Amino acid sequence: MACILKRRSLVVVGVIVVCFFLMVLRLISEMKLPLQRNSFDKPIARWMPFSYPQNGSIRTHFGYVNIRTHEPLQLDCDLCAIVSNSGQMSGQRVGNEIDQSSCVWRMNNAPTKSFEEDVGRRTTIRVVSHTSVPLLLKDPDYFFKETNSTLFVIWGPFRNMRTDGNGIIYNMLRKAADRYTDAKIYVTTEKRMSYCDGVFKKETGKDRIQSGSFLSTGWFTLILAMDACYGIHVFGMINDTYCKSDGFRKVPYHYYESGKNECDEYFLHENAPFGSHRFITEKTVFARWAKKKKIIFTHPNWTVS
Ligand SMILES: *[C@@H]1O[C@H](CO)[C@@H](O)[C@H](O)[C@H]1NC(C)=O
Ligand SMILES: *[C@@H]1O[C@H](CO)[C@@H](O)[C@H](O)[C@H]1NC(C)=O
Ligand SMILES: *[C@@H]1O[C@H](CO)[C@@H](O)[C@H](O)[C@H]1NC(C)=O
Ligand SMILES: *[C@@H]1O[C@H](CO)[C@@H](O)[C@H](O)[C@H]1NC(C)=O
């Protein structure tokens, strides 16, 4: 009797061990997959395991879903131009160069109208903060009808983006999508939002929420662009020491608004105890990414040593 019991428990233990082994094998293969498929220059082991696997030449980005069809975003670019909203763009006259990129990325409500010579005309994709959605809705005909080939990717916290009828910003977007049926509006999933938080924690060692800060639209833009583009030119973005360097160019915070000054604004945000962006910390991280990926910062030009 004792002998039979012993044999039975041995079998049970054996089955458990085999199951566990299979689970580990599967985990490992899932972690390897996105790494191997990431064709962007040199793959980075540090953060790809959390990314989503991609399929074929049209890359599918499962962290962003169409608000009407619920389909994931499909975007595959060669050379991308990311145009900063910074006053650094004023007078750069790089509009033509920007428009020749395979995809042109803009952020929030940054206009092209009457700034074409400096910032270009085309917009392939616009990454928009939940706080900037009301600004788009001030001129919905322009954003969702005239420029109806543009993809919109909206990011925001769960409380504003929840889909159960209580997400204020989500509701606004739903309404716009119902009215402008050709508009391509995507929302960032909750899972992808926490992935972006996770990247911040990994890169800075700081928990974003505990440190009382918000990620910037630039952060979300660069993370998606690194998945969707084979190379990136960032226009008008300064580096982390620019505002402390000799003879830096004093420019407005945004190229389309006067009033706030770029460096003043950066210092204000960096040092605020809560409710602010960490633009300077983020730039340090961007510089690190630029060492490993095909990212070039231009106008002002800066290289990563
Ligand atoms: C992946 O791509 C192949 C062809 O490239 C296609 O047949 C398949 O449906 C795709 N799978 C998904 C999940 O999109
Ligand atoms: C999309 O934009 C083009 C170019 O501005 C315009 O001709 C067309 O009517 C727009 N489509 C819709 C459905 O508004
Ligand atoms: C950052 O920008 C400043 C001002 O343009 C420059 O002096 C400095 O060398 C740059 N730093 C890096 C690492 O490129
Ligand atoms: C900045 O870099 C671009 C392209 O790499 C180059 O065309 C331009 O002349 C550079 N500008 C300055 C001021 O060095």
From TrEMBL:
Subcellular location: Golgi apparatus membrane
GO BP: ganglioside biosynthetic process; oligosaccharide metabolic process
Molecular function terms from GO: alpha-N-acetylgalactosaminide alpha-2,6-sialyltransferase activity; alpha-N-acetylneuraminyl-2,3-beta-galactosyl-1,3-N-acetyl-galactosaminide 6-alpha-sialyltransferase activity
Entry GO terms, CC: Golgi membrane
Catalytic activity: 3-O-[alpha-Neu5Ac-(2->3)-beta-D-Gal-(1->3)-alpha-D-GalNAc]-L-Thr-[protein] + CMP-N-acetyl-beta-neuraminate = a 3-O-{alpha-Neu5Ac-(2->3)-beta-D-Gal-(1->3)-[alpha-Neu5Ac-(2->6)]-alpha-D-GalNAc}-L-threonyl-[protein] + CMP + H(+); a ganglioside GM1b (d18:1(4E)) + CMP-N-acetyl-beta-neuraminate = a ganglioside GD1alpha (d18:1(4E)) + CMP + H(+); 3-O-[alpha-Neu5Ac-(2->3)-beta-D-Gal-(1->3)-alpha-D-GalNAc]-L-Ser-[protein] + CMP-N-acetyl-beta-neuraminate = a 3-O-{alpha-Neu5Ac-(2->3)-beta-D-Gal-(1->3)-[alpha-Neu5Ac-(2->6)]-alpha-D-GalNAc}-L-seryl-[protein] + CMP + H(+)
Signal peptide: none
The keyword Repressor is annotated on this UniProt entry: no
Source superkingdom: Eukaryota
Keywords: Disulfide bond, Glycoprotein, Glycosyltransferase, Golgi apparatus, Lipid metabolism, Membrane, Sialic acid, Signal-anchor, Transferase, Transmembrane, Transmembrane helix
InterPro entries with a match to the protein in the record: Glyco_trans_29 (IPR001675), GT29-like_sf (IPR038578)
Transmembrane segments: 9-28
Membrane topology reported for the UniProt record: Single-pass type II membrane protein
Documented EC number(s): 2.4.3.7
Pathway noted in the entry: Protein modification; protein glycosylation; Glycolipid biosynthesis
Family: Belongs to the glycosyltransferase 29 family.
Name of this chain's protein: alpha-N-acetylneuraminyl-2,3-beta-galactosyl-1,3-N-acetylgalactosaminide6-alpha-sialyltransferase
UniProt organism field: Geotrypetes seraphini
Gene name tied to this protein: ST6GALNAC3
